Amino acid sequence: MFRIAREKNLPPESLIDFASNINPFPPPDIQDIVRSALNQIFYYPDDSYSWLVDVIASYLKCEEDEVVFGNGSIEIIRGFFAMHKGSVLIPYPTFTEYERFARLHDMQIISVRFDVDAIVHAIEDKKPQAVVLCNPNNPTGDLIKRKELWEIAELCEKSDISLLIDEAFIDFTGKGFDGEAFIARSLTKILAIPGLRFGYGRFPRSFARKFHDERNPWNVNVIAMRVAEHYLPMLEEFSREVRRKIADEREWLKRNLENIGFKARGSANFLLVEGNIPAKQVFEELLDRNILIRVCSDFKGLSENHFRVAVKRREDNTLLIDALKEVKK
Fold it and tell me: Strand 130-134 and strand 162-166: pairing?
């Protein structure tokens, strides 16, 4: 967004950003919490992060020696790939960074459609060393049902396969997975703090120990640490209220997109949209109206007509629909 704002010689806040899947209903006191931590920026964080670990373990209902955290969940995800060799099953379309990390760490990529039956068959047939699932999936918004996820996890455990579940958007759909798996989560989306960066999760003990042995010291800054310590204890209640608001706006947006000739799907705080015109054209015409969307042609399995939009507040969603009506003329 900042690059485009510079190119258009506009302040970033003048752009309506539907490209980033960020909660449009952030906590009203988030800036107060950030300001209250500013006097701590003159000191190094305690690299043991003992209080933060305690808060995360309490929230995830896991042991403290299973806790991992990082500068966004992306650090946790990269840590997972750095610990594994051999082959990795990555269903598509999904978050493009998984394949990039797999290539960086010389892992063989096994690709299958993001479909439970296809995933199960590939696990049984290909016997990969690792499986990576985004749930809910980005960019499709597909959510693997809890029963099906347990079946996949049990199959992986039985075959000694490491399963990573990226739950960056889980706060917008319900409770996360509590079975045997590597879990990566994020406060970036639900608290609307993409510029601050904080990810957390749990790994099996031996892998969590290795993650901390290899992570950079002071990998979480004091402001992100204080924000996490403040909001994690109340996150479940806050997320429940956000889900209610998002569900209303998502259904309104989906219905109105379909009314003007676009297909739309998704169960989280964004929708994958397909029209009968190239998404790049839609992007350019919306950009002329200071509206950003995410073109999805770079996702394996999607076409040049696919794009993704975040679910925002009604006034912004209305502006998007009105602009798309003009594009379709």
Answer: parallel
> Which domain range does residue 58 map to?
30-235
**Tokens standing for 123?**
């696990």
Report how far residue 64's alpha carbon sits from residue 95's, in angstroms, rounded to the nearest whole number.
29
Domains identified in the chain, total number? 2
**Model confidence, pTM:** 0.95
Residue that terminates a domain, selected from 186, 209, 235: 235
Report the run of H or E that residue 295 belongs to, with start and end.
strand 294-295
What would the DSSP string read from start to end of 222-272? Answer: HHHHHHHHHHGGGHHHHHHHHHHHHHHHHHHHHHHHHHTT-EEE-SSSEEE
Q: For the chain, give the number of residues.
A: 329
- Residue type present at position 46: D
User: Distance between CA atoms of 82 and 214, rounded to whole angstroms?
Assistant: 10
Residues 161 and 212 reside in one and the same domain: yes
Q: Quick: pLDDT tens for 140-151.
A: 999 999 999 999
The 10s digit of each residue's pLDDT in 192-229 is 999 999 999 999 999 999 999 999 999 999 999 999 99
Which amino acid makes up residue 260? I
Distance, CA of 201 to CA of 207 (rounded, Å): 12
Cα separation, 176 vs 114, whole angstroms: 19
